[in-house]
Write a structure and sequence with these properties.
This protein is an alpha/beta fold. It has helices at residues 18-30, 48-56, 115-140, and strands at 7-12, 35-40, 79-82, 97-100. It has a four-stranded parallel beta sheet, covered by helices on one side. The mean pLDDT is 93.
Length: 146
């Protein structure tokens, strides 16, 4: 018997920030009404700033791990949501609905950026992703309209 719940896959390049935050937010919002995963074309590690800003809103993504897009079973995915803005998004092979939410990458290698500036960038990305997930959830009937 196949799982009737919709399968969602959030993609970005490193699977370290945007897609990880999206996975955590969607899991919290949709609960067991959807199967939620994230992956990337060049997986690295979950960014500590992403973990920190998610913890601020009560979502723990500290145990999540970066995964390669080719490690995801296409049979369990119905919708792929890419979160890339300025970079080339990963490709997911499979017959799925594809949505694109361009969110700027909050990560930066600029040593001049102070911790508070980095946290602000990650909060902005988290909040933008959260708004899109709530809109998507209402449209798909995965959350109430209240």
């Amino acid at each position: 018997m196949t799982d009737p719940r919709p399968g969602l896959l959030f993609l970005c390049v490193a699977n370290s920030a945007r897609s990880q935050m999206a996975e955590g937010l969607a899991r919290r919002l949709f609960g067991d009404r959807a199967r939620v995963q994230s992956a990337g074309s060049e997986p690295s590690r979950v960014n500590p700033y992403a973990v920190a800003v998610m913890r601020e809103i009560g979502v723990d993504i500290g145990k999540q791990r970066s995964k390669a897009v080719d490690s995801i079973d296409p049979a369990g995915i119905d919708t792929v949501i890419t979160l890339c803005a300025e970079e080339v998004c990963p490709v997911f092979l499979g017959r799925v609905r594809r949505l694109h939410w361009p969110i700027a990458d909050p990560a930066s290698d600029d040593p001049a950026l102070a911790r508070e500036a980095m946290l602000a960038r990650f909060r902005a990305a988290r909040d933008a992703i959260g708004e899109r997930i709530e809109q998507f959830g209402r449209a798909e009937g995965l959350v109430g309209t209240a």
